[in-house]
Amino acid sequence: MNLLERIKAWRAKDDKPVHLRRGEVGERAAKKHLQNLGLKFLTANFRSPRGEIDLVFRDSDCLVFVEVKTRSSEAWTRPAAAVNARKRRLLSQTALDYLRLLKNPPVKIRFDIVEVLLADGEVSEVRHLPNTFAMSKPYRYG
To answer: How much is the pTM?
Structure first.
């Protein structure tokens, strides 16, 4: 990458919409929080044709699929409320894609949500909601 391409890449990074930059801050805070709790980080932003999972961790013999919701205010609803039935179904399908890539190992799985609240662009609170929902019907694993 030459100097001009580096400058373009650097500028493009700054041109990201606010909600994307806020999401990145939230995902970094969530990752750090979960690592401090002893979970082993595996990957971030796993994408399949059916969706994306923000963070994937291992907690002992359990794979943990994490959805991070970042908000600058919780005046309306809690951030976790944004993980509705449609989102849970997409997360379930994407988790199955991830497991298929691993050749369906015999592991337990769970879905966690991490709420990250920002105040003036800085992380003010991180809430970990473990085992928030089960895999959506009719999907099953194990």
So the answer is: 0.86
